[in-house]
Here is the input.
Amino acid sequence: MLKQIEGGVTAAKGFWASGVRAGIKESSAKKDMAMIYSEVPCVGAGTFTTNVVKAAPVKWDQELIRHRETAQAVVVNSGVANACTGEEGYGYCRSTAETAAALLDCKPEEVLIGSTGVIGKQLPMDKILPGVAMLKEALQSGPEGGQMAAEAIMTTDTMPKQIAFTFEAGGKTVTIGGMCKGSGMIHPNMCTMLGYITTDLNITKELLQEALSADIPDTFNMVSVDGDTSTNDTVLLLANGLAGNEKITEKNADYYSFTEALRAVNTYLSKKIAGDGEGATALFEVKVVGAETKAQAVTLAKSVVMSSLTKAMIFGHDANFGRVLCAMGYSGVQFDPEKVDLTFESAAGTIRIAENGVGLDFDEEEATRILSEPEVTVTADVKMGTETATAWGCDLTYDYVKINADYRS
Amino acid sequence: MLKQIEGGVTAAKGFWASGVRAGIKESSAKKDMAMIYSEVPCVGAGTFTTNVVKAAPVKWDQELIRHRETAQAVVVNSGVANACTGEEGYGYCRSTAETAAALLDCKPEEVLIGSTGVIGKQLPMDKILPGVAMLKEALQSGPEGGQMAAEAIMTTDTMPKQIAFTFEAGGKTVTIGGMCKGSGMIHPNMCTMLGYITTDLNITKELLQEALSADIPDTFNMVSVDGDTSTNDTVLLLANGLAGNEKITEKNADYYSFTEALRAVNTYLSKKIAGDGEGATALFEVKVVGAETKAQAVTLAKSVVMSSLTKAMIFGHDANFGRVLCAMGYSGVQFDPEKVDLTFESAAGTIRIAENGVGLDFDEEEATRILSEPEVTVTADVKMGTETATAWGCDLTYDYVKINADYRS
Here is the structure.
């Protein structure tokens, strides 16, 4: 029984958070550092960028998540990504963690690090280390703490993104909450995606990682095109056990209650990232049904959601089904275009626009009405099997796109 | 001895061409149909889109190129792509070819067809068939004919694209010329690429196809990302033998003189397509050297040239080497980022900006000067082997890009 509640990373028991302006972005008045802190050590799980080029904080976190039993804090900065910075950059992760550990009375190896911003520039440690001290002072356990942190990790995001739910496990109420920053730009590959999820669930480290690893392919990864990942992409999940439920050590009913809640948090955050593309006016959802394999469905859905032509189509409110078929066609998946059915759907209704690969003589006005809503879904049925996938993106709204959006008129 | 001469598809002996306004784009005063005609039958070669969804004219041309010995004319329209149009659309290719054949006194199976424009809409045959008659009347054999045709195949291109060369084969002067239309939009996948090359060389059909197939991977295909091909992409090469050289039936010196000329034509046209991206201010060339395999080099070069972040970097005249490394990193190719050297180059000079994956303390002003030229080259040495590849694109110049271009300042 999932119930949405107020807050984000501080919703779960024992979690504190803060956000401050350390001055990393000299010309900006915005907050640029965030901290998450748990009163007691947590088990931690993480998923990281698949980019061959990994930022120093990604290497730092991977090491900690893989080889350490517990974590207790996260320090995040925006402005400088600490990527392509060599040994020096990795050393700065250690200095930051050491400073935080001393202030928070934990070990440096229990402090996870996140960075987003310019690649190839060293961190201004004269700003970062005082920033860590400011973060420690600013920590709060209520919704204000989570709000501060969610604001501080924003770069070109137009709004903070956070959510929290409660669910029941072993007779106890468990809370899970999360925050993320996403792609301010139009394409997810243009900006680092950072996600931080906290829960007071009592669970083993192994099952926590398994739950996160199983969830990401259907949530955060469906916002981004395969491989189009930044050097810094990171999702961390911390569980401190303070809910007091009997420890989850196997995939029992409690485990599945948890994975359901995790799915809800990550789906919400993924859709928020997709819908908050720079200047976006609509969330663009693509469902592929009837694929033979999951991989096929994923590839087809991502190809459509990332096509500049389909995105421009959503902006132009123009049901140009050929663009959807074209994007499926170059995805690399083999299918029979002459079997594909396409449907557009939104709060304003549902309209079938193509059957067996050929356009229907649909009502253009009705189609325009449906495509003018803030959330638009395209469903493609490829009629080969039973596998499905859903991907999320946004429309393109800029001048260069207008040429495409108006192409048919 | 390659020599550039005036003209395009009508430069070679016996080729005529025309371009007219048939009214397919009702609201436009631009020419929208083109014809190429050879006084005598030609052997023909072609390469076509790899998109699973193939437009009707692509299917028509593939059939003719594969199964017919000769071709004598090409009819092209812009405005409507005749893609996703089923049996009806394929029938319209036949009607168009029949009409042209009757007027030109050849067989319908000797008339190749090309289309570009809106997907999913049927051709307005009440415009197309009269257009064919107008094209026949307008045919000219001089440079004016080639110019008319090059203008008529444009969609959002800002300028016609054509080139011609002469070379010697068996003591005879042979001429080769070509025209193309490209991506008016920023990404090559947004627009159909059509290329038409004519020559008066005497050569077998088999070797003609072999020469074209061998050339495309290093020329036209390096403008476009793997798989990001439209439903209509087509390059046709017609050879009518009127130069009078002894027929090329094996890979002798004459064959290699021809392939050199073909490479020159296709390279020129490819760079023109890349440099004519909508609103582009610069041709962006990416060279990868030191790869283990050709495929690696190609994938890395394309990943960099198509990255919105690197393209924005060229527009912003900002030597942000991390973006280049990042795009290489998500290409899927395994390499050691800590070995990569990066160099920027243009008419204003050459500057090394990163060595072994770490940024050098280069002169920012000099870098900006180099990146401000109309043609900018980035070279990445991955130090794994001896294979190389060159890809071409353009900068991004629109409002949405400014955010990226200014990101570092």
